[in-house]
């Protein structure tokens, strides 16, 4: 029993060390050359375990993601100000709409290996400043690169992105099949971090939790 406890303590210490270094070591190590004036304001939204990226809409964004309208998501409604994108584990996302519905199987899949999905939501005005909202100004080229990264995360079928039928939390969100596999080491927050790096922002080297991603974003941007 003592050996088991010692082993578990070592594993926990290794995870804490990795998370600390993952926050404090920037990625990329050196700042990129100045990309010009930040004309686009994007938002990173967080809750205790998950982060999303809110993209401000204009005619070009609505046109690029018009497949959302085809699935019944009102992204072209005039009151919509943001389209919110998140990537995550299929079982946890689809089977846990609220914390009260948390089940063992989705948790086990999230800790081991699961298929992935894209979750897309629409929002009106989002209040800033707010503890759960971080805003960043990026240039047009970086904004385009971010949209490219998000679009490439959708799994493509013969007719484009594959909507998951009868899977939604409300009338204002939809789920789509996504590329890649989800696990505890490469999860929703590492996807967010990778997306932000394509937009010219610096993150920590490994950010598995919203708190570590938020700290690194504040440190290096």
TrEMBL record:
State the source organism's domain of life.
Bacteria
Q: Which InterPro entries match?
A: CHP02117
Offer one Pfam family short name for this entry. DUF2459
| Protein name as annotated | TIGR02117 family protein
């Amino acid at each position: 029993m003592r050996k088991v406890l010692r082993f578990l303590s070592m594993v926990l210490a290794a995870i804490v060390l990795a998370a600390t270094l993952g926050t404090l070591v920037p990625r990329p190590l050196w700042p990129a050359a100045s990309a010009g004036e930040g004309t686009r304001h994007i938002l990173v939204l967080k809750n205790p375990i998950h982060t999303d990226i809110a993209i401000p809409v204009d005619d070009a964004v609505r046109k690029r993601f018009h497949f959302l309208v085809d699935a019944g998501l009102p992204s072209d409604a005039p009151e919509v100000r943001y389209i919110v994108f998140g990537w995550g584990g299929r079982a946890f996302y689809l089977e846990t709409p609220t914390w009260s519905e948390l089940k063992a199987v989705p948790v086990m899949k999230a800790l081991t290996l699961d298929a992935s999905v894209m979750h897309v939501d629409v929002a009106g005005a989002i209040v800033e400043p707010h503890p759960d909202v971080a805003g960043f100004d990026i240039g047009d080229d970086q904004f385009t690169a971010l949209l490219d990264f998000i679009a490439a995360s959708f799994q493509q079928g013969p007719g484009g992105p594959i909507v998951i039928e009868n899977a939604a939390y409300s009338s204002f969100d939809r789920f789509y099949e996504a590329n890649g596999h989800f696990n505890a080491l490469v999860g929703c927050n590492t996807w967010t971090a990778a997306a932000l790096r394509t937009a010219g922002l610096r993150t920590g080297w490994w950010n598995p939790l919203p708190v570590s991603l938020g700290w690194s974003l504040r440190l290096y941007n």
